[in-house]
Specification:
This protein is α/β, with parallel strands linked by helices and about 450 residues long. The chain has 3 domains: about 130 residues, 3-Layer(aba) Sandwich (Rossmann fold); about 110 residues, Serine Threonine Protein Phosphatase 5, Tetratricopeptide repeat (Alpha Horseshoe); about 160 residues, DNA Cyclobutane Dipyrimidine Photolyase, subunit A, domain 3, CATH 1.10.579.10. Helix content is about 45%, strand content about 5%. Strands 3-2-1-4-5 form a 5-stranded parallel sheet, sandwiched between helices. Bound molecules: flavin-adenine dinucleotide (FAD).
């Protein structure tokens, strides 16, 4: 059996059903697990109490405790992984570093540089698919091309699926490196990485992921009927765990297969959207910085900054939009239906660029994921792959009446209008003189803006 190895965890913060760790522990005598707080990523964050950092930190603490229970521990570095990973590999004299694929453009460039540095030390970087069921060019059209439309992609994805694709990648915990040298840094207090702890509304770590999945089991059969209503918990709430890998995507798919129902079929389709957008990012990385559709690349969105600011603060005068934006800022969460409503409102009512909205979501969303966020924004703005047609424009009032009929969700986040009845709460300005004085009048008229959006987007 070859000598020792490092397993570098990144967006796969668990010790079970883990492709890289499974391969490392199968092939090496001793395996040390390492995480790097990447200074380049952390320094770019605007908030020192960023909830994502707390989630990561708590999840690492759980991993560290599990490793310590087996006589090992987590190694945690802080700085530039391109320097730190090869240096650690040299110090520990490992044969190889194992990691799971990360197809974000930044991660690809980083991993190439790490692989080169390791190679020059006669060590290797061995990487594995783990974050999705099918990646890159695994699901293609019959002629081998890339899919640009979700439904045929979904059908081909399902047709390709075999038990081996979702089988557990089991980890041999007898191979964890016992009594690691003192020189390998341990997990420090969060403040040591320049951050303070932030309150979380969900349990982090693999234990949190498993609890959430188990709790969702009873909702799964009704997913199709309940998934669009933000006032109830009709969706899995697993996106944060899927983002950070505190749950394995294979475990999620196995769960859907085990609890076969119309609800689980629908839910699996959502997981396939996730694979679809990851595939798009890997095959069309330029879409991460510009419109997928070339005809919209030079479009100048004319919406004024004041409207963008009002949207960010939940002060547009449209209650469903304001409730969603306030929840996002306070908790880092927004329901999928609301993400679609507020993204449509920003781009097609306020005529502000989807990139501005994407950046605001990237700052606050606890489940922020480059591929899915970009995909969602470009879908709503009609600039993306398989996007909403440009002439389909959500009416924020009818969306509100349909998906929050009693106004239960709005009342939670917009207390100024909580006293209004379920008929008036969706468009309080229609009360005229009786409209609440402490809540803004609508900053735009939907019908007027709709016409402007049609003109703007049809020109192309
Ligand atoms: C403008 C916009 C921005 C978005 N940004 C993100 C983001 O940054 N990160 C993110 O994970 N999702 C994003 N989504 C997709 C979706 O809103 C969330 O995945 C979903 O709300 C998470 O809730 P859940 O875990 O309860 O989902 P469920 O309904 O339980 O779905 C299960 C899982 O499927 C995946 N999924 C569901 N819908 C989508 C979708 N449309 N696209 C891709 N994957 C999906 C998620 O991983 C989700 O956890 C965005 C959608 C829009 C419209």
């Amino acid at each position: 059996m070859p000598g020792d190895a490092l397993c570098w965890i990144r967006r796969d913060l668990r010790l079970h059903d883990h492709a890289a760790l499974s391969a490392a522990t199968a092939h090496h005598q001793r395996v040390a697990v390492v995480f790097v707080f990447d200074a380049l990523i952390l320094n770019a964050l605007e908030d020192r109490d960023d909830k994502r950092v707390t989630f990561i930190y708590e999840s690492l603490a759980e991993i560290d405790a599990a490793l310590r229970a087996r006589g090992s521990r987590l190694i945690v570095l802080h700085g530039d992984p391109v320097e730190l990973i090869p240096r650690l590999a040299l110090e520990l004299r490992v044969d190889a570093v194992y990691a799971n694929h990360d197809d974000e453009p930044y991660a690809i460039a980083r991993d190439q540089r790490v692989a080169q540095a390791l190679q020059s030390q006669v060590q290797s970087l061995n990487t594995f698919k783990d974050h999705v069921i099918f990646e890159r060019q695994e699901v293609t059209t019959q002629s081998g091309g890339d899919f640009r439309v979700y439904t045929p992609y979904m059908r081909a994805w399902r047709a390709r699926l075999r038990p081996a694709d979702v089988a557990e990648r089991s980890v041999d915990d007898k191979s964890f490196w016992l009594n690691l040298p003192e020189s390998a840094p341990a997990l420090a207090p969060l403040s040591g990485y320049g951050f303070q702890s932030s309150e979380l509304w969900l349990k982090p770590g693999a234990s949190g992921g498993r609890e959430r999945l188990a709790a969702f089991t009873q909702d799964l059969p009704h997913y199709g009927q309940r998934r669009d209503f933000p006032a109830i918990s009709g969706t899995s709430g697993l996106s944060v765990h899927l983002r950070f890998g505190t749950i394995s995507i294979r475990e999620a798919v196995r769960h859907a297969q085990r609890h076969d129902s119309a609800g689980s079929t629908k839910w699996l389709n959502e997981l396939i959207w996730r694979d679809f957008y990851q595939m798009i990012m890997s095959r069309f990385p330029q879409a991460m910085t510009t419109s997928f559709k070339p005809e919209y690349r030079d479009l100048v969105w004319p919406g004024p900054t004041e409207h963008f600011e009002a949207w960010k603060e939940g002060q547009t005068g449209y209650p469903i939009v304001d409730a969603a934006m306030r929840e996002l800022k306070q908790t880092g969460w927004m329901h999928n239906r609301l993400r679609m409503i507020v993204a449509s409102f920003l781009t097609k009512d306020l005529l502000v660029s989807w990139q501005d909205g994407e950046a605001h979501f990237a700052r606050y969303l606890l489940d922020f994921d480059l591929a899915s966020n970009n995909g969602g924004w470009q879908w709503a703005a009609s600039t993306g792959v398989d996007a909403q047609p440009y002439f389909r424009i959500f009416n924020p009032i009818t969306q509100s009446q349909k998906f929050d009929p009693e106004g239960t969700y709005i009342r939670r986040w917009v207390p100024e209008i909580a006293h209004l009845d379920s008929k008036d709460i969706h468009a309080p300005w229609q009360l005229g003189l009786m409209a609440p004085a402490d809540y803004p009048a609508p900053i735009v008229d939907h019908a007027t803006q709709r016409a402007l959006a049609l003109e703007l987007l049809a020109k192309k």
